[in-house]
């Protein structure tokens, strides 16, 4: 069904605006690369603080993405399949952190899971767990803002998945768990991967909720975005290098996923769409 | 399937026209040179160290009362953050720093020499009633005390480290806050047990916190310089504001908030 691009009549004004949009997104990166201190890149990246920030960012964002999948897939299933009163309110609440300013999320986490928070005081008093100023606090902040991306993506896929296929498998004697693993899961896999990547990327870039809730200390809660922001004060050149790392990682992931999972199988995507 | 009509509509055309005229306007305003003659009553933007928040709010109000034509916009933050913003082109007409180091980072400097206008001392801030019984700097190294500070770029972070070093105490902060006000709020909200802040911050926190004195032998005297950055757009009006801060009226307000005179 794809028409060759050359045969489309191109509306000149739309093209101009589209090019404007492309340059709007591209120019900031050109500006950043323009000022990049190339000779210092390796020096900055091999510094202790930069390496610990990168390691911490990778560790926390991957855990946050995994947690998002562990809790988010069941939540997506609940929202897609179970019709219960107040479902739209539950959905809005569970995805609120996606549209909230992250710093507001951080403040909310602070007053609920902080040491004096509504629930945090019991975590502290009963289990001796305090989240602020810990790496676990970073993961909580990242999961809080990242999970909705996975939930919405997976929920849409589950909705579009034809339930009759599952029913057919069940009439053939498959257990519900088997059906989910062998029938439903493969069908929603592209959406699950896309949701995981979106959640991971969001967690990797998390700043506002992290610095508000988890504080800032190198090696413990200072992730790449925090290190980048703070380096802007002390050493702007190293902030450029740290930004470059985040851009390269994010860009590479988007590019590879687009080819492998998101864009290359239009036939299957069309089949899923009712 | 019918193809959507993608010919430009009237609305689209007028939008493009608007965009074009906006671009023209931007170009025109870029070409404009700043008038050589300045309005001495021009409204100004003052960048001041976070610890000056309450004092400068009152100074700003007093100044506007005396010069009704001049609107004073205040922006507070860590001196290190503010100087970075100014160097990246933030429109500051006055910069009041909590230390000389960050004042020295101004590019390309200031109009005239920076003038010292206030001093401050350090104190340990704790929760009301001092539940962790923190009696001095040595207690900040205790493992059951959550101590927060600021990075060494932020004046209070460096001053705090100087005091700890002078007292021979090794204390690892749980978090490095962005400014002295961040330390205050972590203690006031109960996330942290203690922090080293300025005497003026403890005073400003009122009943929500209390101070533990640091002996003069290991305490640090912070000197606050003020200047008009060379990049200021309204340097004449800004110079009048600086003169007001340095005047007896300015000093009186600063003293009210616990600042000393240099």
Describe what is shown at a glance.
The complex is a heterodimer of chains A (274) and B (262). Chain A has 274 residues and is mainly alpha-helical. Chain A has helices spanning 12-34, 41-45, 48-81, 87-99, 102-113, 120-127, 135-160, 163-171, 176-204, 208-213, 224-234, 236-262, 266-272.
Write the layout of secondary structure elements.
The complex is a heterodimer of chains A (274) and B (262).
Chain A (H helix, E strand, L loop, with lengths): L11 H23 L6 H5 L2 H34 L5 H13 L2 H12 L6 H8 L7 H26 L2 H9 L4 H29 L3 H6 L10 H11 L1 H27 L3 H7 L2
Helix pairs in contact in A: 3-7, 3-9, 4-7, 7-9, 8-9, 9-12, 11-12
Chain B lengths: L9 H22 L12 E6 L3 H14 L5 E6 L1 H9 L6 E3 L3 H4 L6 E11 L1 E5 L20 E4 L4 H13 L7 E3 L2 H9 L5 E5 H7 L4 E4 L8 E8 L5 H12 L1 H9 L6
Parallel strand pairs in B: 1-2, 1-3, 6-7, 6-8
Antiparallel strand pairs in B: 3-10, 4-10, 5-8, 5-9
Helix pairs in contact in B: 2-9
């Amino acid at each position: 069904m794809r028409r060759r691009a050359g045969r489309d009549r191109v509306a000149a004004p739309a093209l101009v605006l589209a090019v404007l949009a492309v340059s709007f997104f591209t120019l900031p990166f050109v500006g950043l690369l323009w000022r990049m201190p190339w000779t210092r890149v390796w020096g900055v990246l091999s510094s202790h603080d930069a390496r610990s920030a990168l390691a911490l960012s990778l560790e926390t964002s991957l855990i946050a993405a995994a947690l998002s999948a562990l809790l988010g897939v069941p939540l997506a299933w609940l929202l897609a399949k179970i019709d219960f009163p107040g479902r739209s309110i539950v959905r809005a609440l569970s995805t609120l952190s996606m549209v909230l300013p992250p710093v507001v999320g951080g403040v909310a986490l602070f007053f609920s899971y902080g040491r004096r928070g509504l629930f945090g005081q019991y975590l502290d008093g009963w289990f001796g767990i305090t989240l602020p100023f810990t790496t676990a606090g970073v993961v909580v902040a990242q999961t809080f803002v990242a999970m909705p991306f996975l939930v919405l993506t997976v929920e849409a896929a589950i909705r579009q998945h034809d339930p009759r296929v599952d029913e057919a498998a069940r009439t053939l004697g498959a257990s519900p768990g088997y059906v989910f693993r062998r029938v439903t899961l493969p069908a929603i896999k592209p959406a699950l991967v896309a949701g995981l990547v979106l959640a991971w990327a969001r967690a990797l870039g998390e700043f506002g909720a992290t610095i508000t809730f988890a504080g800032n200390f190198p090696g413990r809660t200072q992730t790449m975005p925090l290190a980048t922001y703070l380096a802007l004060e002390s050493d702007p050149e190293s902030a450029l290098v740290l930004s470059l790392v985040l851009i390269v990682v994010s860009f590479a992931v988007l590019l590879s996923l687009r080819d492998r999972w998101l864009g290359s199988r239009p036939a299957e995507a069309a089949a899923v769409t009712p | 399937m019918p193809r959507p009509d993608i010919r430009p509509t009237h609305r689209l055309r007028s939008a493009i026209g608007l965009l074009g005229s906006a671009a023209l306007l931007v170009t025109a305003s870029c070409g404009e040179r700043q008038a050589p003659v300045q309005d001495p009553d021009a409204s100004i933007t003052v960048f001041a160290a976070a610890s000056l928040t309450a004092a400068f709010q009152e100074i700003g109000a007093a100044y506007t009362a005396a010069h009704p034509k001049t609107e004073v916009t205040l922006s507070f933050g860590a001196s290190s953050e503010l100087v970075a913003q100014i160097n990246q082109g933030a429109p500051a007409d006055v910069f009041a720093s909590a230390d000389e180091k960050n004042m020295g980072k101004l590019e390309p400097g200031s109009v005239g020499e920076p003038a010292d206008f206030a001093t401050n001392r350090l104190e340990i801030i704790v929760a009301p009633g001092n539940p962790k019984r923190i009696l001095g700097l040595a207690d900040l190294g205790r493992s059951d005390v959550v101590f927060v500070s600021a990075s060494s770029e932020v004046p209070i972070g460096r001053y705090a480290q100087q005091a700890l070093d002078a007292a021979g105490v090794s204390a690892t902060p749980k978090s490095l806050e962005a400014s002295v006000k961040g330390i205050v709020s972590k203690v006031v909200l109960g996330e942290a047990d203690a922090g080293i802040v300025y005497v003026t911050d403890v005073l400003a926190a009122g009943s929500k916190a209390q101070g533990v004195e640091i002996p003069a032998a290991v305490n640090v005297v912070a000197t606050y310089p003020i200047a008009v950055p060379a990049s200021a757009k309204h340097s004449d009006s800004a110079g009048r504001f600086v003169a007001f801060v340095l005047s007896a009226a300015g000093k009186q307000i600063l003293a009210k908030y616990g600042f000393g005179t240099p």
